[in-house]
Amino acid sequence: MSKCKVCGASFPITQFVCEYCGHVETERITKIDEGTQKEISFKDSMNVIHENLNALEQIHRPSISEGIVAVFRIYVAILTFGIVLLFWKKPEKRFNKKEYNKLKAIVARNIELLKLSAKGSDQLQERIGVAENNLKDVDNKIKTSIRTKQFVTVAVVVLFFGMIYLNKEDLHESGINVIPVSSVVAGNIGSNFEILVNKYPVFYILNEEGNIDKIKVVAKIQVISKHKLNKNELLNISMQLINKDGDKISSLSKTKLKNSYVEKVGLALEQGSKRELKLPFYFEPENDIKKVSGDIEKFSISATIDTVQ
Q1: Which residues make Cβ contacts (< 8 Å) with residue 76, sequence separation at least 6?
Q2: What is the number of other CB atoms lying within 10 angstroms of the CB of residue 143?
Q3: Is the pTM of this model over 0.85?
Q4: What is the pLDDT of residues 252-295, one digit of tens each?
Q5: Which of 6, 38, 160, 189 has the greatest number of C-beta atoms within 10 Å?
Q6: What confidence tens digit (pLDDT) does each residue in 3-58 have?
Q7: Domain boundaries defined on the chain
Q8: Which of the pair, 161 or 199, is modelled with greater confidence?
């Protein structure tokens, strides 16, 4: 085994390229010396070039998956403020463009020197031309891989941010804040939670007609005691808006939390996690309204477990 001088990774002695970092052991690549190439046979020189081409073929080509992983890595790094990069291992078998160009230059130089030595022989020049075409084929494959990776990377980035833009909520502030009736969560599993008492702003989303399509309230709750959910138990979490008189607002009926957030709450409940859980609730007005009623003042949250057959 040979050990890479750049990253220390081991690779077979018969190879010239480190599969981990892409470094090329150019000092081990046989070169045709301009001063002595006349002293060696044409056959030996061709063997040198074939050895060079084999080394070039060993270089890992860029792949589509590498582009997708790179985009995902950037996204995760943004979400974690770059902290994840401290623990992210470099991918194996990376393409190293600098090392590739270095090796390609060696192969091209060897071919040119051999062409000079075989000048005047069409038969030898034809054999050298085959090796030269092999070099071009390898180079074209590498360039195609690079372009494909770049295209896919850009396409994934555009698609990713396009989806974020399309799914972005056009929220409007209503200027109204609501508070919980109490920190107590109602329901047969409510005692395992508490509402973090605070003022929560009320937002709304308009439809194409300019009427309010949904009213949104994001509240925070916390698990205060853990509970193991059985396979036949279904967790439900809902919110009810309440007016200044303490009555439920009938035009904005009780709304259930989306399943994706219920799953997060269920996981926190089973783990006994004490971290704050931000839960968005959406209410759909029964009638067409242009603004959020100023009568909304409070809310209550209920958490129940239903047994399913």
Answers
A1: 84
A2: 12
A3: no
A4: 888 989 999 999 999 999 999 989 999 999 999 888 888 888 88
A5: 189
A6: 777 766 676 655 656 655 656 665 555 555 544 444 457 777 788 888 878 877 77
A7: 2-167, 171-307
A8: 199
Report which of 245, 237, 244 is spatially closest to residue 282, judged by C-alpha positions: 237
d(CA 203, CA 193): 25
Give the pLDDT score at 36: 47
238, 301 contact by CB (below 8 A): yes
Q: Write the DSSP symbol of residue 293.
A: -
* Cα distance between residue 50 and residue 134, in whole Å: 9
Query: What stretches of 6-132 adopt beta strand conformation (E)?
Result: 10-11
How far CA 214 is from CA of 170, 217, 281, 287, in Å, comes to 11, 10, 10, 11
Q: Measured between alpha carbons, how far is residue 251 from residues 180, 200, 217, 283, 292 in Å?
A: 19, 20, 16, 9, 11
Mean pLDDT of 174-198: 93
Decide: helix, strand or coil at residue 185: coil
Token representation of residue 290: 């242009």
Query: 217 falls in which pLDDT band (50, 70, 90)?
Result: very high
Cα distances (angstroms) measured from residue 224 to each of 189, 191, 196: 11, 8, 11
Vertex 26: Cα angle to 24 and 29 (nearest 5): 115
Packed helices 42-58 and 97-117: angle between N→C axes, nearest 10 degrees: 160
